[in-house]
Amino acid sequence: MLRNIQLILKGTFNQQIRTKTFRKTPTKAYQRVMAMKKLRLALGLEVKPHEPVMENKFWKVEGDMKYYKSVSPGSTNRAHPTKFHLHKGSAVKRLSFGKRSTGGRSCHGQITVRHRGGGHKKRVRIIDFHRKAGSFQVIRYEYDPNRSAELLLLRCISTNEFSYIIRPKNVAIGQIIHSFPNGIPPEIPGERQFTKSELIQPGNAFAIKDIPVGTMIHCIGLKKGGPAQLCRSAGTSAQLMSTTPNGYAQIRLGSQEVRMIDGNAIATIGEVANEQHKLRNWGKAGARRRKGWRPAVRGIQ
Q: What are the mean pLDDT values of the chain's consecutive 10-residue runs (301 residues total)?
């Protein structure tokens, strides 16, 4: 503190503070790539789209997994799902906000949750677990650092508003998905009606009572008008076993537990994508520290 006061009096304190800078010019590597593209266009040659590197001296891609080679102790046995299909930019600013981590401490500074602290800063994505009614177009896939599942960025066809949902399997970019949390609308003369095959598709959301028995579902709510609370992690799903006359439904979870849930609660058809998440191998302790996990010392001699 005294040193800072002396620097302020000398007028050199502000010179030592480095302001946040942004890259104003593209990198030399990017300039070389763009120059090569312009040259190929000028010569009338085909410009191939960018293809991800499937193998080099550091890693090898097999299926949907990237396996790292033993070039260092930290890369030995390291593996994680590929991310070539995910959006490489930042999240939508209106649908995200910054989060201040607690490091596992309470308001008194005492550790209330063990093995937490540090890690890279994250932005919390606002996810539509209530599934607003309407038709939506899939814009892109996105990564979420706060969960194992991936996200879909949707655009509402009627209002052009954006929203995030958990990404189901077998939902393509540009596809139209529908949400009917208050029941399937009745037929209106003069308007196009949805066929049953169009409705029972992955990504569409209904009240549980409107879903055929035996369908695989995820993002399941527990009460009418409530948010999705079950089967939201990567690769998870449940099966609708039966419905009862008093308005309840029996659902078998991944743990083989059968639960009785309100038939008016929301559920999404299909399974959560990124099922390869369970095959991830962090490779080294530093990878876990970057995720905000501290060592778990058990005190065993």
A: 52 45 68 90 85 91 95 95 92 93 94 95 96 94 97 94 96 94 73 73 94 95 95 97 94 96 96 96 96 93 75
Bridge-based pairing of strands 151-156 and 205-207 is unpaired
Q: What pTM does this model have?
A: 0.82
Residue 137 is assigned to a structural domain of this protein: yes
- In 144-274, which ranges are continuous DSSP H helix? 196-199
Determine how β-strand 216-218 pairs with β-strand 238-243. antiparallel
Instruction: Let me know if residue 106 belongs to a domain.
Output: no
72 and 136 co-located in one domain: no
- Residues paired with residue 240 on neighbouring β-strands, in sequence order: 251
Domain assignment present for 193: no
Split into its structural domains, the chain has a count of 2
Domain housing 80: 50-84
Eight-class DSSP state of 257: -
